[in-house]
Specification:
Blueprint lengths: L7 H21 L1 H4 L1 H7 L4 H13 L3 H22 L4 H26 L2 H5 L1 H131 L5 H36 L7 E3 L1 H19 L6 E5 L7 E3 L1 H23 L9 E9 L2 E8 L6 H4 L19 H13 L2 E7 L3 E9 L2
Parallel strand pairs: 2-4
Antiparallel strand pairs: 1-3, 4-5, 5-7, 6-7
Helix pairs in contact: 1-4, 1-5, 4-5, 5-6, 6-8, 8-9, 8-10, 9-11, 10-11, 11-13
Length: 461
């Protein structure tokens, strides 16, 4: 290796050191990462200039001084890179300058001890110098690639941060909107709660109105039904009083007729039996009325459905006749004599039968008033055992229910009757009593112009 004695090499080293410092400052972002070292590197041209001045003033050979300056600059650079070891490109450059720094240490040491050794192994040192430079360049390009990758990752992170901030801003806006919407919904909920309370009060009034209407129909039917046995009781009581009068007259006669007295006593006894029979009938009707008006206890009792259906058939019929004396209809009871007692709430099921039968008589009366030739109003009630269930069928030969209406008849407040004649709760309450109260079913089969049949199905056990 040749060494020029010209001290101008030190002047060339100053701008080289300054350029390398500027490049590394920009490449490693030293103003942000190591601001103190960045300020130091700005004056990296100073040592070469000081050494140049010293060499000119003292006449010292500049080659050795240049070696020391290079070693000093490389050592400072190594320390700085060690401080930046957390930064991957800095670690790569540190690994890249390591062979060059080692070469510089060996060369400077030999130059200091014995410069002739450098001349002896000049080719080897040239090869090592070239390898060190090639190694440094290779790792510099690797570091640059790493920096680009890190910049891409940094950009990606920044984009993610921006997206995150946008999402947070959107979330904050959404939370604000949700809060506003929640406040609005809370206000609406309060308004709806008030409306619901008012609706429930109105519904309770309508249910009570429906119950009163049902009770009115029942009362009218009972009044007409009980009138018959009372008439018999009154008539037989009058006849019995006359028989007693005749018997008393016969006893005061001088010549009594024992045969006539026995005949009068026999008639009197028969009349008293008739009075007892019809009085019992009136008493049973009164008991039925009391059971119907009594609040349900919730306990089911075995009930004769044949008797219950027959009683409410006649009560519903006489209830309509109380409103229209000219109305007459044919009643067709068809009861299964082998029907077992069924555990039911008799008063609740009675309300169902009264409602269905009242609707049946209303339907046949409406068709009769249309003046259909040869029409005979008929209402039929039948019972039968079907497997583990008992069926009660209520059929009429009225005008029937249109298909469009049939799907709505069990809905609350739906009615086909004119205003003032129905609340639309009768069939809805009946449906609830049968399905929810007794675990049964209530279905309807109707054809326009032919009639309607409601079927109540109840489990025997």
């Amino acid at each position: 290796m040749s060494h020029s004695p010209n001290n101008s090499e030190l002047l060339v080293l100053a701008p080289m050191a300054y350029g390398m410092a500027k490049g590394l400052s920009r490449f490693l972002d030293l103003p942000n990462r190591l601001p103190a070292w960045d300020r130091v590197l700005r004056f990296s041209w100073v040592p070469p200039m000081l050494v140049f001045g010293l060499a000119q003033f003292t006449g010292i050979h500049s080659t050795l001084l240049k070696q020391y300056v290079w070693l000093l600059l490389l050592s400072l650079l190594g320390v700085m890179l060690l401080l930046l070891s957390y930064y991957r490109p800095a670690r790569t450059i540190l690994l890249g300058i390591a062979p060059f720094w080692l070469y510089q240490v060996v060369e400077t040491g030999l130059e200091t001890i014995d410069s002739s050794l450098l001349k002896t192994y000049d080719d080897g040192f040239d090869t090592a110098h070239g390898f060190a430079l090639l190694w440094l360049l290779t790792f510099f390009f690797i570091a640059r690639s790493q920096k680009k990758q890190l910049e891409k990752e940094q950009l990606l992170r920044e984009e993610e941060e921006k997206a995150k901030r946008r999402i947070e801003a959107q979330n904050a806006e959404l939370e604000r909107l949700v809060s506003e919407r929640t406040a609005a919904l809370t206000t609406q909920a309060e308004e709806l709660r008030g409306a619901l309370t008012e609706l429930r009060a109105t519904q309770a009034q309508l249910v009570q109105s429906e119950k009163m209407a049902s009770l009115g129909e029942l009362t009218a039917g009972i009044a007409h039904e009980i009138q018959n046995p009372l008439n018999f009781v009154n008539n037989f009581a009058e006849v019995s009083a006359e028989l007693v009068t005749e018997l008393e007259e016969e006893r005061v006669r001088p010549e009594r007729d024992p045969g006539l007295e026995d005949e009068l006593l026999a008639d009197l006894k028969q009349n008293l039996l008739k009075i007892t029979q019809h009085g019992g009938r009136a008493a049973s009707i009164v008991r039925g009325m009391l059971e119907h008006s009594r609040t349900s206890s919730g306990e089911r009792t075995p009930t004769d459905l044949n008797q219950l259906a027959d009683e409410y058939l006649r009560l519903a019929y006489h209830g309509l006749r109380a409103k229209d004396k000219t109305f007459n209809a044919t009643l067709e009871p068809d009861f299964d004599p082998a029907l077992p007692p069924v555990p039911v709430l008799a008063q609740d099921l009675g309300r169902v039968l009264l409602n269905l039968l009242s609707n049946a008589f209303y339907a046949v009366r409406q068709r009769q008033q249309k003046g259909v030739a040869g029409y005979a109003p008929t209402v039929r009630v039948s019972t039968r055992r079907v497997g583990d269930d008992v069926e009660i069928r209520v059929r009429d030969n009225g005008s029937g229910i249109p298909e469009s209406v049939k799907q709505k008849i069990f809905q609350p407040f739906f009615t086909t009757k004119p205003t003032g004649e129905g609340t639309g709760l009768g069939l809805s309450l009946s449906y609830d009593i049968v399905t929810q109260g007794h675990g049964g079913t209530l279905t309807v089969d109707s054809h326009e112009g032919q009639g309607t049949e409601f079927v109540i199905s109840l489990p025997v056990s």
